[in-house]
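Hello forum,

I keep getting stuck at the same step: I have a sequence, I want structure tokens, and every attempt I make locally crashes halfway through. Rather than fight my setup again tonight, could one of you with a working pipeline run this one for me? It's a single chain of 197 residues.
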Amino acid sequence: MVHAIWIIMLTAGIITAMFNGRMEDVSEAIFNGAEEAVALCFGLISIMVFWLGMMNIAKKSGLMDIFTRLLKPVAVRLFPDVPPKHPAMGYIMSNMTANLMGLGNAATPMGIKAMKELRQLNNDSEEASRPMVTLMALNTASLTLIPTTVIAIRMNYNSANPAEIVGTTIAATACSTIAAICIDRYFYYRKQKKRKG
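Reply #2:
Ran it on my machine without issues. Output:
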């Protein structure tokens, strides 16, 4: 659906430019945008490599295990339908930890693996189970302590203080995570009530 929206917007922009005689501006914007995108990607790669390296150091030093142990009681309460020692729980906690560290790119593979395991728990049903919905809500809202990607973008555009957004990011993602959990629990208990009634 999103790709269809982008195609419609792109087509509408080109047609409008043709009728207004501004095709030269469109061509210039395309080439400038492509050049800027490549420069931005190189800037992001260096920061992502740094933070992925830091995450690897944290993993080998045992810091990730500490995070995982701290998150386990929370994860067990958020995912009551998932057995605590099931592989899905490990992937869920890895996903949550990566999101906490602001490493969305590292969180994605863990989230996909968790979804595969949760689907198996759901007897390979096409319909999303409660834990799958909860994981999607948490992954989308994702409490973030260090917004590495945004810091990288700000550094790439020569921000005077790229890390000044850390406090507001923590506040905003904390609010979005609390809202996601509250909405998820509301529908979960509502469904439970309907089953009983």
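The first helix runs from residue 2 to 20. If your local run keeps crashing, start a new thread with the error log.
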